[in-house]
Design a protein that fits this description.
Mean pLDDT: 82
Order of helices and strands: HHHEEHEHEHEEEHHEEHEH
CATH class of the largest domain: Alpha Beta
CATH architecture of the largest domain: 2-Layer Sandwich
CATH superfamily of the largest domain: GAF domain
Radius of gyration: 21 Å
Number of strands: 10
Strand order of the largest sheet: 3-2-1-6-5-4
Number of domains: 2
Number of helices: 10
Low-confidence stretches: 1-37
Strand content: 15-25%
Distance between the termini: 36 Å
Helix content: 25-40%
Largest sheet: 6 strands, antiparallel
Shape: elongated
Amino acid sequence: MGLLSHISNSASNTKQPESVPVKKAGSGLLAKAQKATEKTFSSLQELAITKGFKHCALFTPVHGMMVITEAVGLDSQTVANSVSSKDFWKGIFKTSNVLNYSKADNEMYNFLQFFSFELKGLIQHISFLKINNSADFSVLFVFNTDDKSVNLSETLSQCIKFNTTSKKNLTTAVPSKVNHSLYNVNYSDLALNSIKTIQLPEENIRRSVLSCIDEEVFDLFVKAFPSPAAISCPQQGKIKLALTAPVADEMLFQAHINLLLKSVLDHNQLMPEVTSAGKAKDSDSILKFLEN
């Protein structure tokens, strides 16, 4: 654990993989047809689903440092461990904008400090892709815990256009004239407890880490409770659920929430607080519940 800025000099001197050749599209009808078939991704979640990435993240600049601000399939400690210096990444990408490592490569071990204790021994492949983003750059980070290699291509950087600077609206669409059972899920203490042993350099970065955790939790709930359920994350550590079917077994529902959060938050002792907030039918009442 600890900041990668402390090893920026030594890491930049490690052997770098050979540059990956990039074929220029050229001009003419063939180039136009190739460009027309390129898919642009609007979110990291869409990219992960399309490419089959089970574990991926995006490092972006936060208050002068590089931090994971978007994540799919990562736990909270790995997000908090991501704080690193720009100089570290400039050194890593000195010879190429795409780096692919397997467990057989010694260079891969320079990056294990990113991961939580639970993940360190499971990593089999890691890939990094440098993405230019205005004056700054961001880094796409993909890893696997199975034998399937990742092998990112530099051409993928041209297809990643989603906005990494503004927080997305963490509220799903609200259907009208459907009776909903309302529930509050409070996991704030779990989130804070899961990263309490990791020293974060300042408050802006701490807020960014917690925001990334919230977005990942929100996406887990969206997948677990699809439409016509309505879901929001109006503030840090809180999920609001509007379900069309009432919960028949409260203990089973609590266990389901516990299991859902366990992939992101380590809560061996603490549990999320799940409480009922009654029922609502009209969309205005449901939206008011979701926003507060």
